[in-house]
């Protein structure tokens, strides 16, 4: 009888929530799609009309600081993050906010290390760097790894929010997936990177508006922000500084503030989607400034996610919609809360849905464009160096279209995955660390050679999958519930979070390795690549400075060991400054 009553209650709640989704909400959602398509069409038929690969893939290197910075932010802020961060705060408290401490170094290092190297080499694909520094084999290995990472991820990032939306509001599942996928493919294929960046700007504004609407209305209904804070404090949701150094603890200051730096570097330092935006800037200074400008924006995004989680707690307390059976997963809980708070205000639920899918659009459009770029520049052009510019541009557009269709196919595959969906999501986070390690090996260690680079990358990927899959299988076999999609880190690194839950018993041996906090994944895997790469390089014959392509090594050791005599620094192969090398190159 109780089960029957509970299921009836669920059906009744579902009916109530679905009734709140009005025609006005659908109109606002449609306007988002129309506006995004319009921006794509505008850049398809204006300016140079996307007739060259330079314009289609790099926006003619003509972008200013503001749109690039907002685009960097939008790529970072996925729909998974919009749904995940508030439910993380609601469930575990504000400890997650300390992730913001990692943003400082996580953006400062790319601005002053990675951007100067990539920009001065005048690259189109980040993986061109790997050929200049090592050889073609390393470049292809990096490219294939990146393509695997993005193809697996982009279907999931489109399907997961649509599934949550469908479960809570009755919004048509495949209607939403197809509408988003096709619109995104349209404006990415027609408008190139310039359209992707300007739609990101528009979608970022929509994201901010949607989250602010929920927070303002929700806090007002609970008696103001002071009352929300009081309830959260009384419910032990306001966390202090946790300085526990245990790497197995899911969230502490060290896992978030230090481990988070490596997650940020994997995204903002070497991920093609972000590197492409730096390279589209008019000058190196504008690229660096866009990186700086992301910092306050990210802090705002993180704060909005935390505030929404606290307002949720003020509304429901310990009796969450998940516990009451109104929703099935944590990521649905945020949508249930939005419909509960905004349901009586026509248009506002639609604004949040537009906000949610803006996150998805910005992520997958970046994926399409970056995938088309690396496929063209790293896999096709090297074999056809005499290819005409018009033909190369046409193939680039066809690649963007092709990856758009692959995304829809991956969304369908994601729908068949069931519980494996979580594992597919975590693959994205697993691959980011080894790629970061590969670039760091080349950029900071002049004696690393190509054999060391390939061996290190393989070792890093094996370590990543061993720890990631071991953790996932261990927790599933223990029947532990999976945590929420609690991410505000780069799409790019975000989803390793989905494999890690709270640790109850102190594990030992291999189990301790499997219980490593997901925030240390990137650091652990990138360090594996660097250490294995250096050892193999030293065993197989290290490179010397004369063999290096000028401008491919950042003089990190030379700067750190400034106190050593010049002859010792010369032996360490790190004395020539970056500026001199680049001048020689150009």
Q: How would you describe this structure in keywords?
A:
mainly alpha, 73% helix, 586 residues, single chain
Structure overview:
This protein is mainly alpha-helical and 586 residues long. The protein has helices at 2-19, 23-44, 53-58, 65-76, 79-92, 100-120, 128-133, 136-169, 173-221, 225-234, 253-257, 259-269, 272-279, 284-316, 330-342, 348-380, 389-417, 420-444, 450-477, 491-494, 510-514, 521-540, 556-560, 566-571, 578-585. Mean pLDDT is 82; it is low at 1-19, 479-504 and 580-586.
Summarize the structure.
By secondary structure, this protein is mostly helical.
Question: Layout of helices and strands, plus pairs?
Answer:
Elements: H1 2-19, H2 23-44, H3 53-58, H4 65-76, H5 79-92, H6 100-120, H7 128-133, H8 136-169, H9 173-221, H10 225-234, H11 253-257, H12 259-269, H13 272-279, H14 284-316, H15 330-342, H16 348-380, H17 389-417, H18 420-444, H19 450-477, H20 491-494, H21 510-514, H22 521-540, H23 556-560, H24 566-571, H25 578-585
Helix pairs in contact: 2-9, 2-16, 4-9, 4-13, 4-14, 4-16, 5-14, 5-15, 5-16, 6-12, 6-14, 8-9, 8-15, 8-16, 8-17, 8-18, 8-19, 9-14, 9-16, 9-17, 10-14, 12-18, 12-22, 16-17, 18-19, 18-22, 19-22
